[in-house]
C-alpha cells in the first residue's frame, strides 16, 4: 500500500514513496530551464519537471545524462520530483515569448504526474504570461488529455506523442512500462479533437511489421506534424545497460539499416509530409 509523505514542508507536494515500479523522491532543483542543444537546438530552452522516467524505455538516451552510475543503471526504476519547479519558473527571467521544449529527458506525463500535477502547474503559470512562451510538449501518455483545458490556452503549442512501432509485441520488449499503441493513437486523436496541434512521432523508429498499415493508422489521427527518427545504433562513449539491451533487441528483430530505410520510404509514400530528424522538432 502506498503511503503519502510530505518530504519538504515548504513545497506542499505530497508524494507517494513508490509509483508503479519506481521509487519516488523529492528533489530541490537548481534550475528549471536549460539552454536547448542537440536535436532540439532550434528551441531556446528545455524544461523537465522530473528527473528520471518511470517509463524506462530500453533505448532511452536520457539515462546517459545521469551522473550517478547506479541511477543510470536503474533507469526506469526511480523518479525525482523537482518540487521547487514552479517557484523556479516563477522567478525565471526571459520566459516570455521564448520557445521551450517540455520533456527532453523525462516524460512530463509519466504516472507520478497524476498525483503531483506538477507539469500542469508549470503550464498554468506559463499560460498566464504575456507574451506566452511557445511550447512543444513530448509524451507517450494519455494523461496529457487531462490538461487539454490548459493546453488550449496557448497560442503556440504542439503536443507530440511518440508512437514507435505498430506491434504490441515489439512495444512490450522495448517499452514494457509504456502505454499501448492504441492508447497513444487515441491520445493523438483526442488532442486533435480538443483543438490542440499535434505531432505523431515515430521516434525512435522501432521494428515495424506492416509499414503501410501503420501509416494508414497514423494518418487517421490527422496530426499536424509527422516525424520519424532512425533507431541509433552507435554506442558512443557510453555503454549503459539500457543501451546494450536495446541493441540486443534490435539484433533479435533483425532491424538493420536497409529495412529501416525501406520502411521510411513506405511511410513517406503514405505520409507525404513526413519529416526526418530534428526538422520535425521545430518550435511551434
Ligand atoms: S518515455 Fe522518453 S524519457 Fe521516458 S524512458 Fe522513454 S524515451 Fe526515456
Structure, described:
- The protein is an alpha/beta fold and 284 residues long.
- The protein has one domain (4-281): Aldolase class I (TIM Barrel, Alpha-Beta Barrel).
- 30% of the residues lie in helices and 19% in strands.
- The strands form three sheets. The chain has an eight-stranded mixed sheet with strand order 5-6-9-10-11-12-13-14, covered by helices on one side.
- Helix 2 (85-91) runs parallel beside helix 4 and helix 8 (211-220) crosses helix 10.
- The N and C termini lie far apart (42 Å).
- The protein binds iron/sulfur cluster (SF4).
- Iron/sulfur cluster binds at residues 53, 55-57, 60, 62, 106-107, 140.
- Iron/sulfur cluster (SF4) binds next to loops.
Bound molecules: iron/sulfur cluster
How do the strands of the widest beta sheet line up side by side? 5-6-9-10-11-12-13-14
- Straight-line distance between termini: 42 Å
For the sheet with most strands, the description reads:
8 strands, mixed
- The CATH topology, please? TIM Barrel
Tell me the number of helical segments per DSSP (H or I, 4 or more residues long): 10
The poorly predicted ranges are: 1-6, 237-242
Strand content: 15-25%
- Total beta strand runs: 14
Total domain modules: 1
* Average pLDDT rating: 91
Topology order in helix (H) and strand (E) letters: EEEEEEEHEHEHHEHEHHEHEHHE
Q: Return the CATH architecture.
A: Alpha-Beta Barrel
- What radius of gyration results from the CA coordinates? 18 Å
Helix content: 25-40%
CATH superfamily: Aldolase class I
Q: Assign the CATH class.
A: Alpha Beta
Globally, the shape reads: globular
Amino acid at each position: 500500500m502506498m503511503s503519502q509523505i510530505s518530504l519538504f514542508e515548504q513545497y506542499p507536494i505530497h508524494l507517494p514513496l513508490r509509483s508503479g515500479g519506481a521509487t519516488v523522491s523529492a528533489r530541490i532543483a537548481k534550475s528549471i530551464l536549460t539552454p536547448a542543444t542537440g536535436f532540439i537546438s532550434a528551441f531556446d530552452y528545455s524544461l523537465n519537471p522530473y528527473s528520471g522516467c518511470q517509463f524506462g524505455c530500453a533505448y532511452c538516451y536520457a539515462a546517459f545524462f545521469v551522473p550517478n552510475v547506479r541511477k543510470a543503471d536503474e533507469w526506469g526504476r526511480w523518479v525525482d520530483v523537482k518540487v521547487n519547479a514552479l517557484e523556479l519558473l516563477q522567478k525565471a527571467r526571459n520566459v516570455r515569448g521564448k520557445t521551450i521544449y517540455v520533456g527532453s529527458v523525462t516524460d512530463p506525463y509519466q504516472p507520478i504526474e497524476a498525483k503531483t500535477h506538477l507539469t500542469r502547474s508549470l503550464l498554468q503559470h506559463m499560460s498566464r504570461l504575456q507574451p506566452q512562451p511557445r511550447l512543444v510538449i513530448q509524451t507517450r501518455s494519455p494523461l496529457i488529455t487531462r490538461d487539454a483545458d490548459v493546453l488550449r490556452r496557448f497560442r503556440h503549442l504542439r503536443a507530440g506523442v511518440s508512437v514507435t512501432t505498430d506491434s504490441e509485441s515489439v512495444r512490450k520488449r522495448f517499452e514494457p512500462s509504456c502505454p499501448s499503441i492504441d492508447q497513444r493513437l487515441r491520445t493523438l486523436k483526442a488532442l486533435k479533437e480538443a483543438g490542440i496541434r499535434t505531432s505523431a512521432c515515430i521516434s525512435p523508429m522501432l521494428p515495424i511489421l506492416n509499414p503501410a498499415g501503420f501509416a494508414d493508422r497514423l494518418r487517421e489521427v490527422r496530426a499536424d506534424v509527422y516525424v520519424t527518427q532512425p533507431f541509433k545504433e552507435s554506442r558512443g562513449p557510453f555503454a549503459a545497460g539500457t543501451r546494450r539491451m536495446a541493441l540486443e533487441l534490435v539484433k533479435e528483430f533483425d532491424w538493420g539499416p536497409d529495412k529501416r530505410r525501406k520502411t521510411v520510404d513506405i511511410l513517406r509514400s503514405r505520409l507525404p509530409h513526413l519529416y526526418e530528424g530534428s526538422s520535425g522538432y521545430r518550435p511551434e
